[in-house]
């Protein structure tokens, strides 16, 4: 079955023959393995060119910030999956990454789109970021929606990872329009939304990465690759000291059945 | 429902409160973000301690070697999945990682276990690796099974990534018993199995990583984390220049239907 | 970490103790196993009550209509995944279901939401479905978006599955407001969008299921459960006669590398 | 890249052109939709022929027996995944199915292979199932391995679903060699393994399905398709009354951090 357009049958990432493997125009064995570290290679793979020192440092800081945050839901899902199928690490890691949806760890993407829209609105109205930020916050308030990139269920007084990433972006000279827009949003948000709304890590990551030159369409890659490392640590620990079924038992105990009892229904039928 | 033992309700990876996040005994914001690169952090997360320079270089070399090899089946699956659900990167990346089973990219784990078994056999019989390698190869030959870590469908004359990784391990002083066992297997294999069987990248990775001190039970993490970066590049390209449905159409065209025709069966019924 | 509201810790689906299992108020062993078929049970599980004869027939018709359509992208992804990891059926089936995104087979959900919106618009404006349909089609035309539930890449002259499902809904007396709205959309679409746009199976399924009483929020369950059966057939065939790597090789051949060559870049560097 | 044999480029499941869709030799629209229920269609898709009445009843009984068992780990993983990404049902269902590994719900496959091996051993030694069962149980005892298909963490006095399925198989005249072998194993197991080991549902399902003519290689399809229906019910309930994060919070509370504290390590460093 032919679905969609069929006219651009190209890839620019890698090619290989019996003797060599070429990745983004570099010979994998001669020029990359042993000569480039994984963060640089990740940038090269996605963007097509090696990062500058500032770009690499910004990427490393974001990857380290988001890779691990304890027994979050996606980690629990992964560990329960490994406990149930110890021979399929790939299944457990997949189950963990599937939990990076729009609500929790995958929210960097949503926040990045929000910041980009605020900036686009500002551009359309003569570059006044303040006015665009206020307008978008009022619209979210009216629609009773959350502000992407602001607020955190645990770190109410401010997400320390976010502040650290913004500091680093300032030090590296990476901070630009997106960081500025995020800070403007954070300045106006408490007054408009009427609750404490510190910048969270899912707001800081897109702001600093977009300012570093990472594309909006690839933002989701940052938390996904980062979390694959955190999940690896949890899966290894699970294989040595399993808590998947302990967590599952505890969670099950907490939830009460409030459906009809079978005896009642049987008598009635 | 209570499944399995319930007595070790611990994790040693991370903990957090409202003010701070601790990972492997380090303060995430004060001591890790901006101060450690992603490869070091990956090692710290999994192992619990920061790597030495040689360990980090060995890990980086392996991650770079395995992250990307063009439009392999798992990449195709990921790109088709993104084409069908462009709003769920996590689903497309999960589909890609699920293809890292025992046969293709996930075979590092199988090869690592094989090398470890050969060494265990050698230890049990007075440390003669040659004899243990020959015995295990003959057993595989008799069972008509593939030799884990040797041979490649494309690089018949030798997998250039494997040779490069082994060279680096030698240069770094990492090469030890596992590399030695792999080379012994490669030496005897062509004579016993009767076909060319160069060391492949899925054999070299476990050998050099085990010699670098990475645990056998976490071997699968190396190709999984590495491939998440390659998949990220492909998903970004897919979002800009989709080939998922082009590949699918081409693949479909190649396969012929050889079931019964409906008209025939209708007439008979 | 406490995320979201924590105050409704209930489930009404199932409970069990050492002696019995209760599902939706029925004793699983005494009243369900051997006494209810799988389609009825699927309805009971999701809705909480057993279906009427018309509801069951409508559900069966939809499940049969959507379970299998040959080597579509999600089936290819599943078969490639099984070929790469033959010991993990659950991973291959997961990879297949992940391809049921908003674009292809999962589009029933999108079409159902669209039909519901058209009806809500009509209700808000005095129940004139014609006017609401025309307005929504013009809005899609202006936004250059596809019309959910109409059009098909292969069956240009009309998707035979859609017509069959609508006929069955008429015969069963199931057809109501949603089927009517879908037909109204199909009537006006070619004139407004200016191309042939027959009702497709992803439009017919939500229309007939919503009219049968199935909830909008559970629409995605119909194609997902249906396709799990089709995927099972493909995975069994793959385990006997593997085509996963044949398809992958063919797809790879079709795509050309248009990135820089490594020799060129090496010389420049 | 060419992996594996490339010479059997066929499928016998489905084919289609612009006018019609043929599945297993039947016209989908003319002969299947509205004329066959989902259980029959599932059998037809996998096996290639429609089931007899006894085969269909056996399949329905197994699907109903295994579709739902409350908040088991895989259901929890699915609900946490939906809570984190409410717009991707396919991801949540995939996460749930990934938990059907060798240990929990996917163990039907393992038990089926075990029963088949006992029968093969018996055949090789003159059809004495008793002797083969005793020998295999003693081997498991010595290897300290679990007996596939026997024992249950909750239903110690006997899994009521298993007994019901075996009764139905007897009534339908389906019970044959596999049911007989399973009963023989259950008879000898308590004496040899020295603990209560009633037949569980993952033992009964493969025994009755294999006796009904379902192939060993497709056994995993039965729990996977069945659970997709149970997961659908849970995902719908999750979308209305979310407990994903409630369960996750409760599970997290249970697990204590026993890694080093950051202050200690900071002082030392």
What does this structure look like?
The structure is a homotetramer of 269-residue chains. Chain A is globular and about 70 Å long. In chain A, 61% of the residues lie in helices and 4% in strands. The first copy, chain A, has helices at 28-32, 38-47, 53-66, 73-84, 89-98, 107-124, 129-142, 160-172, 177-193, 201-212, 221-240, 244-254, 262-268, and strands at residues 10-11, 14-16, 21-23, 26-27, 256-257. By secondary structure, the first copy, chain A, is mainly alpha-helical. Chain A has a 3-stranded antiparallel β-sheet. At the A-B interface, strand 1, strand 2, helix 1, helix 2 and helix 3 of A face strand 1, strand 2, helix 1, helix 2 and helix 3 of B.
Can you lay out the helices and strands and say which pair or pack?
Four copies of one chain form a homotetramer.
Chain A: E1 10-11, E2 14-16, E3 21-23, E4 26-27, H1 28-32, H2 38-47, H3 53-66, H4 73-84, H5 89-98, H6 107-124, H7 129-142, H8 160-172, H9 177-193, H10 201-212, H11 221-240, H12 244-254, E5 256-257, H13 262-268
Helix pairs in contact in A: 3-8, 3-10, 3-11, 4-5, 4-11, 4-12, 5-11, 6-7, 6-9, 6-10, 7-9, 8-10, 9-10
